[in-house]
Amino acid sequence: MSFSIIGKSIAESVTLKLNETAAILRAKGEPVIHLGGGEPKTKAPLDAIMAAAGLLNSGDIRYTPADGIPALKKAIIRFTLDTYGRLVAPENVIASGGAKQAIMVALQAILDPQDEVIFPAPYWVSYPEMVKLCGAVPVPVYPEDGTFYPRLQDIEQVCGPYTKAVIINSPNNPSGVVYSDQFISDIVEFCEEKGIYLIMDDIYHRLVFGGKKPANCFDYLKGSIDDSKLILVNGVSKQYAMTGFRIGWAVANKKLIEVMTNIQGHQTSGPSVVLQAAAVGAVNGIQSCVDSLCTTLENNTRVMMEQLNAFTGLGVTKPDGTFYCFVDFSNYNKNSTELALFLLDKVRVITVPGIEFGCDGYLRLSTCGSVKDITEGIERIKWAIDPNSPNELFIGERKLTRDWL
Ligand SMILES: Cc1ncc(COP(=O)(O)O)c(C=O)c1O
């Protein structure tokens, strides 16, 4: 059978695959702890459910404009004003099937084959594949100082004549760190000067701990949005725990939004009207759900940190937000895929191998689950790889005896 060159070059989504594996094992009654998840466990806000249910009850479920229904655009405009202090026009906004599609159509709108897209490592698993889907070249960049905090010189070093765009994701998946105001200011200025696109993937923007606020890219933009190549991406998935609703959006200059709309119109049409109604409900509704999710995640992260800090030989960077910790396990195994498979096999803990985010030797651990899951999950990992832990472990009624260290 023959497939396209691009089709063959695209890897499976590891994170989605892990969800599937966890579900299959659970269905078989296996005591799985899923520390690989990328979605909060809280319920979708009632405002979202009521809005979607109201529309469903009407039975009047139709196609939508390719760039989203006016009510959602209005809600996104208000969100952008409240969150970023920037008033944009409806023509600056496109609603898509998740932030994922918003990024994808943005890339399809701006990239030609062989163009290059720079993004700091560790990076979200989908960026390289999305860039490749456009026939373009992903250029991950590793902060030279070995931290998770890129500096402008890291980006400058790999920026060349083929560079078309930079993608910045802060708060960052998988590291949980928030990039400094200085870096965001530098990168906005740099991209403006070079005339290259800057995609700010702000999907975790409101999930920051300790009452801190991540940098607002608009604060550093010199010109108006219509004169700029800044593309701001956000969505309902993470902040409102609405991953399954698949609504995200992009805010950018009108010309680009028009091109993105043309692409999306032929690709999927506008997102489902029911799910857009739900997103309107969430964005316009009571916002305390975001604060309480943030508090839960902060507490879970504190528990995860306590557990990890009591575990010798790990390299741990404290997350400033999101629901991930990206931990250096290379003292135990430099091959993260091997380690993740080993942990699944021996102690039924799901983690995501760091190699998927561009950093082998690391595992991404999620704080989306319960405190019990986090505590027990880390205990199981410790037991499996730390020779100083006792030889036996109970998982429920099941007694495991370690015979591999
Ligand atoms: C950094 C980042 N960007 C975008 C997305 C996609 O979000 P959505 O569910 O809105 O497509 C994710 C989801 O995991 C993510 O981690």
CATH topology of the largest domain: Aspartate Aminotransferase, domain 2
Total number of domains: 2
In round numbers, the mean pLDDT is: 95
Question: What is the number of beta strands?
Answer: 14
Query: Which class best fits the helix and strand makeup?
Result: alpha/beta
> How far is the N terminus from the C terminus?
45 Å
| Biggest beta sheet summary | 7 strands, mixed
Strand content: 5-15%
Strand order of the largest sheet: 2-8-7-6-5-3-4
Radius of gyration from CA coordinates: 21 Å
Order of helices and strands: HHEHHEHEHEHEHEEEHHHEHEEEHEE
The percentage helix is 40-55%
Ligands present? pyridoxal-5'-phosphate
Describe the protein in words.
Helix 3 runs antiparallel to helix 10 (273-284) and helix 4 runs parallel beside helix 10 (273-284). The protein is globular. The chain has helices at residues 5-9, 14-27, 46-58, 70-84, 98-110, 126-133, 152-158, 181-194, 254-267, 273-284, 288-309, 336-347, 371-385; strands at residues 33-34, 93-96, 116-120, 137-141, 163-168, 197-201, 230-235, 248-251, 324-328, 349-350, 352-353, 362-366, 392-395, 398-401. It folds into 2 domains: 5-43 and 288-401, Aspartate Aminotransferase, domain 1 (Alpha-Beta Complex); 46-284, 3-Layer(aba) Sandwich (Aspartate Aminotransferase, domain 2). With 405 residues, it is an alpha/beta fold. It is built from 13 helices and 14 strands. Bound molecules: pyridoxal-5'-phosphate. Residues 38, 98-100, 124, 169, 173, 201, 203, 235, 237, 243, 248 line the site of pyridoxal-5'-phosphate.
